[in-house]
Amino acid sequence: MKTLSENSIRYDGAEVKLSGSRNVGELKLGSEGQLNQNINLWSNVAQRIVDRG
After folding, report:
1. How far, CA to CA in Å, does 37 sit from each of 30, 34, 41?
2. Less Cβ crowding at N or C end of the chain, within 10 Å?
3. Rounded distance, CA 39 to CA 12, Å?
4. Whole-angstrom Cα distance, residue 8 to residue 2?
5. pLDDT at 23 over 60
6. What span, in angstroms and rounded, lies between the C-alpha atoms of 24 and 3?
7. How many angstroms separate the CA atoms of 19 and 53, rounded?
8. What is the mean pLDDT of the chain?
9. End-to-end alpha carbon distance in the chain
10. How far apart are CA 27 and CA 11, in angstroms?
């Protein structure tokens, strides 16, 4: 994901900028299984990498 523009607003000469990350990468790994007709299991792991540039 990449944000190309900065979010800001100017009101009566005051400017407010939304600070956050411009470049974000996320990796998700998961598994899912069914033990029987009534029981389903799932799990996942996620890692987010952020560049504040």
Report:
1. 21, 7, 11
2. C
3. 59
4. 17
5. yes
6. 9
7. 11
8. 81
9. 13
10. 39
CB–CB of 23/53 below 8 Å?
Answer: yes
| 17 compared with 47, residue with greater pLDDT | 47
Query: d(Cα 39, Cα 43) in Å, to the nearest integer?
Result: 14
Which among 25, 16, 20 has a CA at the least distance from the CA of 48? 25
Mean pLDDT within 30-40? 95
Residue 49: what pLDDT? 84
Ramachandran assignment for 38, one of left (phi > 0), alpha (psi -120 to 50 degrees), beta (any other): alpha
